[in-house]
Design a protein that fits this description.
Rossmann fold; eight-stranded mixed beta sheet
């Protein structure tokens, strides 16, 4: 099932330099480095606070590993997190910061790693994420997780990759069920990649018309869709907001349940810090989807 394509790659008619700015996540804040440092520092702290199994292999490549933080009790829902970084930065080492909150709430947390562009293609990254999810579905019971209750979440490029995990017609190739995801929360994601062909992002994304469509979640909607929370920060660019709204509307048009939410007071980077507490609107929305 496919969404109706937009009329062109630049539906808002931005000049070239403005289109580039709209998709420059780092330029949406005065300095993104303090936020990225928070990811690393809070993740390192979390790994000292929560028992975890680190660098568990889901594939043969050294990049194909994940960190798992089991719930206190067996049969727990699973929070499966895909990091962002515009497909070229960050890693699972920056992705543990939410583990204390989710494990205390009763979930098993899985933070995955994947290879980075431009050393690998976006298609390869999508393949790795799908193999990681299939591995989790087969093995997560060992870590107190319920394979029938997996929630996928990710921000920015991670939101896009969650969109590709929600896509249809890939599961048989990976020996995974089409309903592998019970729910999901793509955050600040990109769902129609065609505009990126005309921006600086393509210096490492290396997309053309065909590969952009192949990697765009909005053009690969499934026959059966799970409940979603699609969220973005108040202080994001108009295009990042539009991308989430467009995907959420396409999901709803298919008859699938979705909640759209703009999170007040946060930007493209610190939206994730909401997941360190169990009383924020974003955390409450995700915990609700997970039945916690």
């Amino acid at each position: 099932m496919n969404a109706t394509p937009l009329s062109d790659h630049n539906p808002m008619g931005y000049p070239a330099d403005e289109l580039d700015r709209q998709y420059n996540a780092r330029a949406s804040v005065p300095d993104c480095l303090p936020f990225l440092q928070e990811y690393a520092e809070f993740s390192a702290q979390a790994r000292t606070r929560v028992k975890g199994y680190l660098s568990v292999a889901y594939g043969d490549h050294p990049d194909e590993t994940l960190d798992i933080f089991p719930a206190p009790q067996a049969g727990a829902p699973v929070y499966f997190f895909v990091h962002g970084g515009y497909w070229r930065a960050l890693s699972k080492e920056d992705s543990s910061f939410m583990a204390p909150m989710f494990t205390q709430a009763g979930a098993t947390v899985v933070a995955i790693n994947y290879s980075l562009a431009p050393s690998v293609s976006l298609a390869r990254i999508i393949d790795q994420c799908r193999r990681a999810l299939a591995w989790a579905w087969r093995n997560i019971a060992t870590y107190n997780g319920d394979p029938a209750r997996i929630h996928a979440s990710g921000s920015s490029a991670g939101g896009h990759l969650v969109g590709m995990l929600l896509a249809g017609d890939w599961h048989a190739q990976y020996d995974a069920p089409p309903d592998i995801l019970q729910s999901a929360s793509p955050l600040s994601g990109l769902f129609d990649l065609r505009p990126l062909v005309h921006t600086h992002i393509n210096e490492w994304a290396h997309l053309d018309e065909a590969t952009a469509i192949d990697a765009s979640p909005v053009f690969h909607l499934p026959e059966q869709g799970c409940p979603l929370l699609v969220a973005w920060g108040e202080h994001e660019t108009s295009e990042f907001k539009r991308q989430s709204q467009y995907f959420g509307q396409a999901w709803q048009d298919c008859g699938f349940p979705v909640t759209l939410a703009e999170i007040p007071g946060v930007n493209h980077f610190n939206i994730l810090m909401q997941l360190r507490r169990n009383d924020t609107a974003l955390s409450l929305g995700i915990l609700g989807l997970m039945g916690l």
